[in-house]
Each structure stands twice: as structure tokens, then as C-alpha cells.
Amino acid sequence: MKTPLNQNNDLEAGAIPLLYPSMTENPELRWGFIRKVYAILTAQLLLTIPVAATVYLVPPIAVFLVETWLGWALKHMIIITSLVVLFAMFVYSKQHPLNYMLLGAFTICEALMVGLSCAFTSGKVILEAAILTAVIFLCLTLYTFWAARRGHDFNFLGPFLFSSLVALVVFGVIQIVLPLGKMTHMIYGIVGILVFCGYIVHDTDELIKRYEYDEYILAAIDLYLDILNLFLKLVEVMKDAESSDNA
Fold this sequence. Notes:
Keywords: Membrane, Transmembrane, Transmembrane helix. This protein has 247 residues and is mainly alpha-helical. The protein is built from 9 helices and no strands.
């Protein structure tokens, strides 16, 4: 539960600046929550990188998952497991330590799929996409904290981003059934990049203002998925650009 400021803790809270002008909760508690979320997010990324790198650097793993029936079945089992675990995390997000166990399983599943998505991509593209993802995430995070401090609110982005995400999913399905040209595919990837940049701003704003203190798992998942999807869209666009240059 959020703790409002009162006369007894004004002096204590006054030592820590407000995150946004209309803030009524104790800033120290909110900063503690934010630090916890980013610590969890960092742990997820530190787990994701070696798992994804293993899939990428050991080609037989990707070949097995893509070119064999057993691997195909295992790949789809990983996807289904990831979705089931994600649903379970929403249900049990406040039950410790089960929430952390589910988060670890979800992170491993996502890391395997990220590694597989990058398996047949050049190392140059992967490195450039990783650097761009880190820079974009850092810049958008700092901007959102700066904007919130000055009274800006990004909650209005929610409906637009959700509608855009649904449109991206539908368009992706259409591309599977009716493949379009390379230029259209690149535009689709660029739109995806913009959508997930918007989600980083929106979810960071939610982290600053609206998440309850016991929703740290949900907050970390949102930011983690924003980062992964942004990275994969950057890889997709840069891969298309590289193939166009080589054509």
C-alpha cells in the first residue's frame, strides 16, 4: 500500500525530492520500490545475456530447434511454457518466493527464444542492436524521470500503444499468410521500434506513479519485455538493411 505524506514524516520525506509535483506518498518508499524493480530487471538481463549467447554461439542448438521435428516440438513447448508461466506470474506475482521462481523460468524461456531469433544473424547486427537498445532505454528512462519531475504524465499513451501493438500482431499474422515486400517488412519493423519506445516511456511513468509497492514483479516484467521487443525489432530492421546493402 502507498503511504501518504503527513505532518509526522514531512521532515523525513523532505530530504528526498518528489518524483512528480502532485506526489502524496513518501518519496523514500517510492524510490525504494524503483530501485527494487531495476535490481530485478538487471538480474533478468544478466541471466538473459549468457543463455541467449549460448544459443547464438553454439550453432547446433539453433539448427536442432529449427530443422528437426523434435527441435520444432521443443521450440513450441518453450513458447507455450513461456505463456503459461507469464499468466501464472500475473496470478501469483505477490506470493514470495513462488513469484521469483516463476520469473526465473520465464526469463530463461525468453532468453532461449531471443537467442534463437538471433541465431542466423551476423554478429555486427547483434552488437549494434544491443548498443542501440541500451542507449535508447537509458535515454528514454532518464527523459521520463525528467518529464515526470516537471509534471508531465504519459498515462494517455496506454490506449494508443495497446491498439498499435494489436495492429502489429495482426499485421505480423498477415505477413505469415501473405508475405509482403522487403520494404514493407522494414517499415513494419520501424513502426514496432516506435511502439516499444513508447511502451518504455509509458511503463516507466507507471513505475514512477502508479504501481503498488507489492507489484515489483509485474513492473519488472513490463520493462523486461519492452527491452527485449525493442532489441528484436532493431535486429529485424538492421538485418533487412544489411541484406538490402548486400543485394
